[in-house]
Design brief:
The chain is built from 19 helices and four strands. The protein has helices at 7-31, 35-85, 93-96, 103-143, 150-154, 165-203, 207-214, 231-269, 273-277, 280-283, 301-320, 322-340, 350-359, 364-409, 421-436, 438-456, 467-506, 541-546, 548-559, and strands spanning 461-462, 465-466, 524-526, 532-534.
Length: 560
Amino acid sequence: MLALGSPTISFRANSGCNYLLKELQQIWTEIGENVADQDRMLLELERECLEVYRRKVDEAANTKARLHQSVAAKEAELATLMAALGELNIDSPIRKEKRSSSLKEKLASVAPLLDNLKMKKEARMKQFADIKTQIEKISEEISGYDNLNSSLISSITLDEQDLSSRKLTEYQGHLHTLQKEKSDRLQKVLEYVNEVHSLCGVLGLDFGKTVSEVDPSLQRTNTEQSTNISNSTLEGLEQTILKLKIERKARIQKLKDVVASLFELWNLMDSSKEEMNRFSRITYILGNAEPEITHPGLLSADVIEQASAEVERLTELKASRMKELVMKRRSELEEICRMTRIEPDTNTAAEKSSALIDSGLVDPSELLANIEAQIVKVKEEALSRKEITDRIDRWLFACEEENWLEDYNQDDSRYSAGRGVHINLKRAERARVTVNKIPAMVDNLINKTLAWEDERKTLFLYDGVRLVSILEDYKVSRRQKEEEKKRSRDQKKIQDLLLTEKEAMYGSRPSPRKSNSFRKPNGYRANGNGSMTPNPRRNSAPPLVINAKYWKWVRQLLTS
């Protein structure tokens, strides 16, 4: 028989078998068994031992096969986990100890690594599940709870075969993208809600009811369901803001019309400051742009109704004082026309208007409206005439300076020493410069007036007279005045020449200091007034003959 196992165990087995065999042979000898029976029984005994060995070998072979199967299964599971987790850099201990280790050792060596990978897989699965939950929640908020995008959810279905770090990073990137989009949408929703709140405050509308019509979650205070930030919510808020802005614009225009009517009626009725201060809150909108009107409740329906009621009250009061208002507005029209040098319409004169109202032939409201239209027309015309009227003022100022300069030039004491003389000298210099510009000033004014008349297809009247006619007459009178001045200067020159000739013929006139002298020069004698008259002597005739032509020219000049 072959020895199995360790040498010690094999020795013990051989010794025991030999001992028992000897004891069996001794028993058989004592019994008297023959050799053939003993051999037969030994063969049976050997066959039974072989069957026991065979059974043990089969059991060992089965155990080995199961171990092989377990090792292969563990190795396959390890490979699957490594592939799923993306841990491709881990070396399998089975491959390392393939030749040197037994099956049980291989199985024992792979178990810790397998358990570690299983724990890592569970942790990775938890990470994926958490990310998926967040993605689904944010996707619900973005897409709307009732219109969840199934394609978006299917794109993030968890695949247990791919739990690698790359896949986890991809999920995290997708989550970060959705979180950023959520943040942007929340910011936009917050801006829209704040704008809706501001508009509702100005318009006096219920903010909660307004936003609830868009989505109930916009004014929900609990945290059961997050704020809806879907496209439909954003579009709904945009449409709400647009409608509120349209309503605000309409109310602003309506309130501006009411306030304008209030101002007009206040001016007509001479309302007190206390009465006007009641509506000081709304009067400032006339000078402000639409985005600047943010005062809460300023455009509410109640405020507009109160202002409209005040307009109706003042309108009724105006009807009872219509004649007084007509006279007042007519006076304002006449004052405006007086300041702008425009002739008012005589059809609405104070006496005529009073007579028409008393007779009942004309509705006072129509008459007042007619006067109001005339005031507007006069103001518009005054605005178009402003450039010309400014030139007229400068021309009139120049004429005043010219008159002052003439008076100044006739003052014989203008050069005498005294206080303020130098001031008048400087003013005279400036006046001469201004007077020299008058002809060009008048010509430019005529050209401007003619251009205005061509554009307006009407005459430019100044105090009821055509301005061009006034200017033309002024030019003629100024020309005549200049000619008169020239004739005066020429006449003075002629008189000086005559005096010079007279002195040449009869001698120079003595000074006043010598007028009482009794000395008589040759050929001259003193007359009563101190001047010298020539004696009738012959030598005085030739000078008269020589200057006969000159005297004729002087007479012609004087007569002309």
